[in-house]
Design brief:
The chain is α/β, with parallel strands linked by helices and 390 residues long. It contains 13 helices and 13 strands. The protein binds adenosine-5'-triphosphate, iron/sulfur cluster (SF4) and magnesium ion.
Length: 390
């Protein structure tokens, strides 16, 4: 990372136009260098074909760093994220707005806004079942084969992802055809209708002929899910898939995702800020804060024994049916400036359990069980005990 060590700004909220110009110049130098490396012709396969640490995983994020080189400095959107997505399981990624959830998933799809957004360190190992790609190093041409074929993404607002001037059938057929080049037209249509039925659309022939604006928000999201499933992906990324929908439709779409998961045996990376959604859907939970994972574990571990003060705060800010509260709890304070992260625990300013040691360095991840990890000095004292007790 010596590449951008010079690219630091003063610890102030204002920068002069001269400083901004210098930063832009330095940014261009850095991003040109990365782009040049990326755009080499005939990149040898050994550079990006690798091995999984555990073959039962479909994805392994390993110390991923994704930065944006902006005119006000380097935004460390994802700053050392590691977690796994086991085959056939749902992993919920949760955290406040801006903590890097979407940038993590966009890095996995190689859809981070380039050239200012770049994966600058770490690996994203993706297991196709036959080969393992390190997506951080995979050339764009190879990535196009994985995207859509092996990994699909369901976005928050289905209206913006569907083309308003084409009928649903045309759009669905196009995706089906793309993944099944040798299928006849009739077979493609039959497959599209089957996909619509699979996502719970009873009047599939009718919907096939409709335009997106003729459908409700919930129906459009079902169509998007059908498109996402057309290629039987190994991984579905659902980024806030229900936020734009009203509550009853939200519940129906989540139920649909849950039932589909069993039918198609895909893994799901479910991104949300709603802990209720996570509790109902996920097998594993990853809690992110300011571009890093602060806690991870099975859904039972995170809900029965939330350990990081931030996770505990998130749990307290979740409204509960039947519990009378005067006003909703929200974690006081704000997230540090992403261009100027402190060199100690990022949660320090907001933490009601902070100690002197928390200002000394960023806390290491400590394992409370083989699956439950937490990055917090509160457990540092227990580290010895835990290791001896294992
Ligand atoms: N194109 C971009 N240029 C500069 N900074 C960006 C860009 N995209 C994202 N960021 C920054 O990266 C950080 C992480 O953003 P991200 O979209 O991943 O957050 P998120 O956790 O998905 O939030 P939300 O819950 O609001 O969707 C934020 O500080 C954001 O401002
Ligand atoms: S390391 Fe310290 S400041 Fe950070 S969350 Fe833990 S107790 Fe709070
Ligand atoms: Mg997001």
């Amino acid at each position: 990372m010596a590449l951008f060590k010079k690219n630091k700004i003063k610890n102030s909220n204002y920068i002069s136009s001269k400083e901004s110009r210098n930063i832009s110049k330095e940014n261009r130098r850095i991003t040109n260098e990365i782009e040049k490396r990326r755009n080499r012709k005939n990149i040898p396969r050994e550079e990006y074909i690798t091995q999984m640490k555990d073959p039962n995983n479909v994805v392994e994020f390993d110390d991923l760093h994704t930065y944006f080189f902006t005119d006000i400095g380097t935004v460390k959107a994802v700053d050392g994220v590691s977690f796994n997505i086991p085959t056939g399981k749902t992993v919920g990624v949760v955290g406040e707005s801006g903590c890097g959830k979407s940038v993590t998933s966009l890095s996995l799809m190689q859809l981070v806004q380039r050239p200012q957004g770049q994966i600058v360190g770490g690996s994203i190992r993706f297991n196709t079942g036959e080969e393992v790609y390190d997506i951080a190093k995979t050339p764009t041409s190879e990535m196009q084969k994985l995207r859509g074929n092996m990994i699909s993404m369901i976005f928050q607002e289905p209206m913006t992802s569907l083309n308003p001037v084409f009928r649903i059938g045309v759009q669905l057929d196009e995706v089906t055809q793309l993944h099944n080049m040798d299928m006849t037209k009739d077979k493609v249509k039959q497959r599209s209708l089957e996909m619509l039925e699979l996502v719970g659309i009873a009047n599939s022939e009718g919907v096939y002929k409709m335009y997106p604006h003729e459908l409700s928000g919930g129906m459009r999201q079902r169509v998007m899910i059908a498109m996402g499933l057309a290629c039987s992906p190994r991984l579905i990324i659902a980024d806030e898939p229900t936020t734009a929908l009203d509550v009853t439709i939200q519940a129906q779409i989540l139920e649909l995702l849950r039932s589909l998961k069993d039918k198609i045996n895909s893994s799901i990376m479910l991104i949300t800020h709603d802990l209720g959604v996570i509790a109902g859907m996920a097998d594993f939970v990853v809690v992110m804060y300011a571009g890093r994972v602060v806690e991870r574990g099975t859904v039972e571990e995170i809900f029965k024994n939330p350990s990081h003060p931030y996770t505990i705060g998130l749990m307290n800010s979740k409204p509960t049916v039947g519990k009378k509260v005067d006003r909703l709890y929200s974690i006081p304070g704000k997230v540090p400036n992403p261009v100027n992260m402190p060199n100690h625990c990022y949660f320090y300013d907001r933490c009601d359990k902070r100690m002197d040691v928390c200002k000394s360095k960023y806390p290491e991840e400590i394992y409370l069980t083989p699956t439950h990890g937490v990055s917090c000095f509160l457990y540092d004292e227990k580290k010895g005990e835990l290791e001896n007790g294992r």
